[in-house]
Amino acid sequence: MELIIEFFSALYNLSNAMALYIIFGLAIAGIMHELVPETLVTKHLGSESIGSVIKSTIFGIPLPVCSCGVIPLASSIKKSGASKGATLSFLISTPITGVDSILATYGMFGWIFTLYRVITSMIIAMLAGILTNIFDKEIINEKVVEEKKDSCCSSSNCSNESEVKQKFSFKKAIEYAFVNLLSDIAKPLLWGLIIGAIITISIPENLSAILIEYSWLSYIITIAIAVPMYVCATASLPIAAALMLSGVSAGAAFVFLSAGPATNTVTIGVVKKMLGTKSLYIYLGTIIFGSVIFGLGLDFVFDINSIDTKSLVHVHEEVSLLEILSSIVLWTLMLYFIFKPYFKKA
């Protein structure tokens, strides 16, 4: 009974720490979706230049799209003439962050950690794009199996190349944010919160001590879990927070935040089909080594300054009424979208 109380207490704290920022981020994401036409994505990414790689990386950073939802967008810009490097940079930078995830990261870890996450994801994405343009000149048929896309993301998250943007509609922006987008991330976000709460109460002290003493082991374990796993940038936050609260280093948690959202088994298959084997190796190698190197860098900085990584996680026992209401709204919407298919069957 005590364990159940601890679990729900951890779940309550994690939800309150994130909900307000997720809701605010979703609203901004909906507005961005209405304001930025998809044709703009495909316009500037055609040449095999560093400029196109930088543009695709910067454009991908704020987009609230997961590692599966980015597949049809990447396919679209590739078919429209984007270079392999620009396509790969977009594939990496877009799912690692997003305006909703950036705000939620700030709410849970503070601005220094958030800035570090955004900057390093840009570096990893740009490096992958530049290496691809240099070392992979192989021409691939422009066929990306639709089954891969459909098995990964819902139609609400898959872009339509022929879509023409109309004038701004606040109603459509809110509908996209709190219906289309939230319904797509509801299940992984729920599991992220649940897993985060379980980690918080279940990691034994001796395991944390081992992972702290042998930090390289924590990186290997995190990478092994993160690369094949499907988790969106926002849903990865409670898991990373729980790891840090349990004593795992900030660097190891960062590895999960970086590699987890950027990869999963479906995206790996699509990258191989769309860009070829060389690009796949560059894609995986850059994400894995980049995440580990920047994770080590984060731990080095904190070790030099003797900062307790647990203090980075902003989960407070005292919460405001607004945070509680935001948590209630978020959970209500999440559960509604998760159980909606079952209501229809009934």
From TrEMBL:
Keyword vocabulary terms for this entry: Cell membrane, Membrane, Transmembrane, Transmembrane helix
UniProt-listed InterPro entries: DUF318 (IPR005524), UPF0718 (IPR052923)
Predominant place of localization: membrane
Gene Ontology, cellular component aspect: plasma membrane
Chain ranges passing through the membrane: 12-33, 53-74, 115-135, 189-210, 216-233, 240-260, 280-301, 321-339
Superkingdom: Bacteria
Membrane topology, as annotated: Multi-pass membrane protein
Compartment(s) where it occurs, according to its Swiss-Prot or TrEMBL record: Cell membrane
Family the entry assigns: Belongs to the UPF0718 family.
Protein name: Permease
